[in-house]
Write a structure and sequence with these properties.
This protein has helices at about 1-15, 15-20, 25-40, 385-390, 410-415, and strands spanning about 45-50, 65-70, 80-85, 90-100, 110-115, 125, 130-135, 140-145, 145, 155-160, 175-180, 185-190, 195-200, 220-225, 235-240, 250, 260, 270-275, 295-300, 305-310, 325-330, 340-350, 350-355, 365-370, 375-380, 400-405. It is mostly beta strands.
């Protein structure tokens, strides 16, 4: 121990003698081992906190909100998920539900939080998640975990609720599926295979390049299950040029081609696979589809038509203030052409849409508004006919329902004055 302390003192002093005894390469190797050991703390399962959740997770004490998404359960309960704590190492994931088709919302029913200072005195963020109901009616929450904001490896974790319509939903022990993060829902292929879109985000900060990811490019790949989610296997993927978060999502075309849409700095990008995600084409720009470097949604509806929910702002926009509005289009030819144009929200700082559809055809879109100021999660309900008519005209349609509004005093209230 004394020798280690002496070497440390020499390093701080920067003496030539120390450089000879402890060369730069050896110092860097020691630093890397230490950083890898700290990053491995993200492999410890996060906490699953069920209702009644502590007051700090309630809207009255929250200061920030980013949308994850929504999912309907077999009896019509609508679940929503968002991120609290900040777009930062402080992030945790919150889930709540509505039993009146999204008109009113209960207190949070589940929180996933990796912060546990009694066991791990470093921040572990749970910042990327999605909710999905499978064909058996089970509700899945896929949620990421990382040391700090992004350690370059992250990790997709899953917990499943078999009784999501009950008064007291019960969640399975959370398990880690793979490296990466999954912001968008899985799809079920015609042969019954489940495919979850996963990303490896561009790394910054102390873990840059440590786990084999580039500090310039992020990756996107398919995680597959052929046994209804019991086991998962990684399939092929792509590197997304000029990407920080690629936020991939999948669609299966009528001819069996699998298409992946991804976010990049230049705008929306696409790749295709003809072998169920095992190999992929080169990444290209989709024809006739523009979107800034932000999350969008291209989803297949029950009718066979596709929906495209995107920003109103041009593709060269990036920061939140330039992410203007949300608008929905409809395609009847698998994305070759787009019709309608239902404006959901015209304000600035409206981001991260997610799409769900009910058995009656009603479409649900959630997104956030001014994450660190107004900090709201917003819900819209509409039909395909509304998209084509460019207005909320159907009897069940509703625009701008507030799911959650953060009201904490840390900075929100000060900025509102």
């Amino acid at each position: 121990m004394n020798k280690v302390l002496a070497i440390g003192a020499c390093l701080l002093a920067g003496t030539a003698a120390c450089a000879e005894e402890w060369p730069e390469a050896k110092v860097r190797a020691l630093e890397r081992r230490a950083m890898e050991a700290v990053a491995d703390l993200a492999l410890v399962p996060p906490q699953l906190i069920t209702a009644p959740v502590p007051a700090k997770y309630l809207a009255a004490n929250e200061v920030w909100a980013m949308n994850n998404g929504a999912a309907l359960t077999p009896k019509g309960r609508l679940w929503a998920s968002w991120v609290g704590g900040g777009d930062s190492p402080d992030a945790y994931t919150v889930c709540a539900f509505s039993d009146d088709n999204g008109e009113t919302w209960n207190l949070p029913a589940l929180v996933v939080d990796g912060h546990d200072p009694k066991r791990i005195p470093f921040p572990r963020s749970n910042i990327i998640a999605n909710l999905w109901t499978d064909s058996a009616g089970k509700l899945h929450l896929f949620v990421s975990q990382s040391m700090w904001h992004n350690d370059g490896r992250m990790g997709v974790w899953e917990t499943v609720c078999a009784n999501p319509d009950d008064a007291k939903p019960v969640w399975s022990p959370i398990r880690r599926l793979c490296d990466g993060a999954a912001l968008n829902k899985p799809i079920i292929l015609r042969n019954g295979t489940w495919l979850l879109p996963v990303e490896i985000a561009r790394t910054w900060g102390p873990w840059a390049n440590m786990f084999g990811t580039s500090d310039k490019d992020g990756g996107a790949f398919a995680l597959a299950s052929t046994d209804n989610g019991a086991t998962w296997t990684r399939r092929g993927g792509v590197v997304v040029p000029e990407s920080n978060w690629s936020e991939p999502h999948f669609l299966e075309l009528k001819d069996g081609t699998l298409r992946m849409y991804m976010r990049s700095r230049p705008g929306l990008r696409v790749a295709e696979s003809r072998d169920e995600g095992r190999t992929w084409s080169a990444v290209t720009k989709p024809v006739g589809m523009d979107q800034p470097a932000a999350r969008c949604q291209v989803r297949a509806l029950a009718s066979g038509n596709w929906i495209f929910v995107k920003h109103l702002s041009p593709p060269d926009s990036y920061n939140d203030n330039k992410r203007i509005g949300q608008i929905a289009y409809l395609s009847r030819d698998e994305g070759k052409t787009w019709e309608g144009g239902l404006v959901l929200d015209e304000r600035k700082s409206v981001t991260y849409p997610d799409v769900e559809q009910g058995p009656d055809g009603l479409i649900y879109v959630t997104h956030d508004f001014e994450r660190g100021r107004e900090a709201e999660i917003i819900l819209h309900k509409f039909t395909e006919e509304d998209i084509l008519a460019k207005k909320f005209q159907s009897p069940k349609s509703r625009q701008g329902i507030v799911v959650m509004k953060a009201m904490g005093t840390k900075h929100n209230q000060k900025k509102r004055k």
